[in-house]
Amino acid sequence: QTIPATLISGDGIGPEIMSSVTTVMKALDAPFVWEHHAAGMGALEAEGTPLPESTLDSLRRTGLALKGPLTTPVGTGFRSINVTLRQQFGLYANLRPTKTIVPGGRFENVDLVVVRENIEGLYAAMEHYLPVGDDPEAVAYGAGFNTRAECNRIVRFAFEYAVANNRKKVTLVHKANILKILSGIFLHEGRRVAAEYEGRIAVEERIVDACAMELVIKPENYDVIVTTNLFGDILSDLAAGLVGGLGMAPGANIGEKVAVFEAVHGSAPDIAGKGVANPLALMMAGSMMLAHVGRQDLSGRLDMAIEQVVTSGGIRTRDLGGTATTQDVTQALLQAIQ
Ligand code: NAI
Ligand code: MG
């Protein structure tokens, strides 16, 4: 059975790492039939818009995309394409797994997932200046909102993810001691959802600042973390830093009808075109995508191949302290898959 999927190669190192992923997907006999579409700087130059209607149409049809990094055009007045996609398609859950794969780092057994609420909270962009005296910008005022329905939905997503992926514990991360209403609604709703999973999935609560400290001291204590937009943004980057950085960090943006899989990193203009980019973050996003469509078998095979290549194979790109090229990694993966 084949599955149509939108493929956006993206800018900078995007085409290089995407070609690595599609080559490996083909060797795996993955079910995806790719619909190639443009977005980002490349699309702006070719079609006059960074997010062409044909790309949106494809996404509406397939409900599934693998996306390379997009350079946000500076000074054109366009909003971030990533933010636009999230809001257009209601991609409410941002899923960021973090696992130690490369040995010899600071931690050997990190294996956690951050589930970040992706469309509410303090990123609602409700902010403006207030004048005092003759200074029109004397005070910066900002507000955010969290709805009960969305808090319920994101915490439920985290618990369902835990059940489906054999995880044992969900930690609700909040700041309800200070933001009694804005963060309190998340904690209150989170507790209600957690009660439905009693006896199946353990629940813990952490205040976000304490959580940040514990993450860098004892990340093994964490399994699934669920939290609101701003806290999730910060904690998921922090977590990526525990296991080798951006080149090893995949992510998924998931909504009711559409899911977009990507690497966490950007288009890396400093190394674009040199053939030295690490394709593994996008590769792991591809693995998440396989699991998402029910092909846990292929996802597992790909994960094992990745692990084999960076551990016993010792094939590592420069960002991981090695000298391998993108091609070397692709070839090593193809061999590991056989
Ligand atoms: P970046 O993630 O592109 O690069 C930061 C540093 O990490 C650079 O030194 C780069 O060489 C390195 N790096 C990133 N990915 C790598 C990989 N796969 N292998 C080896 N090294 C890697 O972040 P930066 O420079 O802040 O942003 C560049 C552009 O990317 C900007 O236009 C930004 O808006 C965009 N961006 C897009 C994202 C997306 O589409 N999801 C996410 C982040 C940034
Ligand atoms: Mg971020």
TrEMBL record:
InterPro entries: IsoCit/isopropylmalate_DH_CS (IPR019818), IsoPropMal-DH-like_dom (IPR024084)
GO biological process, one term: tricarboxylic acid cycle
Keyword Iron-sulfur (UniProt): no
GO function terms (MF aspect): isocitrate dehydrogenase (NAD+) activity; magnesium ion binding; NAD binding
Annotated ranges, domain Isopropylmalate dehydrogenase-like: 2-333
Gene3D superfamilies according to UniProt: Isopropylmalate Dehydrogenase
Key words, A-Z: Oxidoreductase
Domain of life, source organism: Bacteria
SMART domains: Iso_dh
Annotated family: Belongs to the isocitrate and isopropylmalate dehydrogenases family.
PANTHER family referenced in this protein's UniProt entry, alphabetically: DECARBOXYLATING DEHYDROGENASES-ISOCITRATE, ISOPROPYLMALATE, TARTRATE, ISOCITRATE DEHYDROGENASE [NAD] SUBUNIT ALPHA, MITOCHONDRIAL
Protein name from the UniProt record: Isocitrate dehydrogenase
Naturally occurring in which organism (per UniProt): Gluconobacter wancherniae NBRC 103581
